[in-house]
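Changelog-adjacent note: as of this version, every example in the card shows the full chain rather than a window. The one below runs 93 residues end to end.
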Amino acid sequence: VVRVCRDSNVSDGGLYLPEGAKQSMSESIQAQVVEVASAVDSDTEEETNVSGIPFGAMVLIPKTAGVRVPWDDDLRVVETREILAIVDEIPLT
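Full-length structure tokens:
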């Protein structure tokens, strides 16, 4: 399960854009992983992430990927194979 990160409605030059204008032109969107597939080992009772995507990671997904959750427009259920990339932000020093 991922939460879609909404862009601000201000362009890089400072112009205000209509709602969703930036996202309508892009083919992928950025999202944060809020839940991952996990399994519990019956012997040790230890829970293991089986998706391979870290919890809390920022990821890129296609704009039309996943199934939207009816009660929250920002949540989507996405399969692991639909994730295009894991995004790591590196601070500039």
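Structural remarks: Residues 32 and 58 are 4 Å apart (CA to CA).
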